[in-house]
Design goal:
Elements lengths: L3 H20 L1 H13 L3 H12 L24 E3 L5 E3 L7 E7 L4 H17 L5 E7 L4 H11 L5 E5 L13 E5 L5 E6 L7 H12 L1
Parallel strand pairs: 3-4, 4-5
Antiparallel strand pairs: 1-2, 1-5, 3-6, 6-7
Length: 208
């Protein structure tokens, strides 16, 4: 049997443990998240997706003001699933939502449901074009991912060089061009594109 001294010592140790946990809860949580993110792509994207629910990663077209001095060459060639090649210059008169992504990229996976939702909201609108540029080495891998997740948004491949003002190699990268081909939004890293605010801003851009 335990004597009173031993029981008191055990209670004291337990109290110290929970005090430590409460005091360092944030650090412990971040450690768990970091450990989880080292395990698998799916786990990483799931954690990032949960963080997006906080609203801290909502995209906003007004987060940066682009004027004429910010503009450089923005046009590039892209290819659809039929092998047809177009240039973004042919999309003048439409708002162009461009997203560079890959199926192996956790932040891309985290934000992709929001892009699919945005696409569903605007896919029938004739004045907007969704240009999702896949960066997987094997395009079949990308199609397998889209099919598994039941995403319907079409995907494309960039052909030739893409201007650094559009894409500098960081995944994901998202750009919105207005009807004149001017950059109105440029973001590297994951974000939520399904928020009411972003949908409204995109609608306003279409109406310009």
């Amino acid at each position: 049997m335990f004597n009173n001294k031993e029981i008191s010592t055990e209670k004291s140790s337990a109290n110290k443990f929970w005090q430590f946990v409460r005091k360092n809860a944030f650090s412990i949580l971040m450690g768990i998240i970091a450990l989880t993110m080292l395990i698998s792509t799916g786990a990483k994207s799931m954690v990032l997706r949960q963080l997006m629910l906080t609203g801290l990663f909502n995209a906003s077209i007004d987060q940066k003001s682009f004027d004429a001095t910010d503009q450089s060459i923005v046009d590039f060639d892209f290819e659809d699933d039929k092998g047809r090649i177009q240039n973004t210059s042919s999309l003048r008169g439409k708002v162009v939502f461009i997203n560079f992504w890959a199926s192996w990229c956790p932040p891309c996976r985290a934000e992709f449901p929001s892009i699919e939702k945005l696409y569903a909201n605007f896919k029938e609108h004739p004045a907007i074009f969704f240009l999702t540029i896949n960066e997987d080495k094997d395009l079949a891998t990308a199609y397998t991912y889209l099919k598994r997740e039941k995403y319907s948004i079409p995907i494309y491949r960039a052909k030739g060089n893409v201007p650094a003002s559009i894409y500098a190699g960081t995944l994901p990268t998202t750009v919105v061009l207005d009807k004149n081909g001017k950059i109105r939004f440029h973001h590297t890293g994951f974000a939520n594109y399904a928020s009411d605010k972003f949908n409204k801003q995109l609608e306003e851009l279409i109406q310009e």
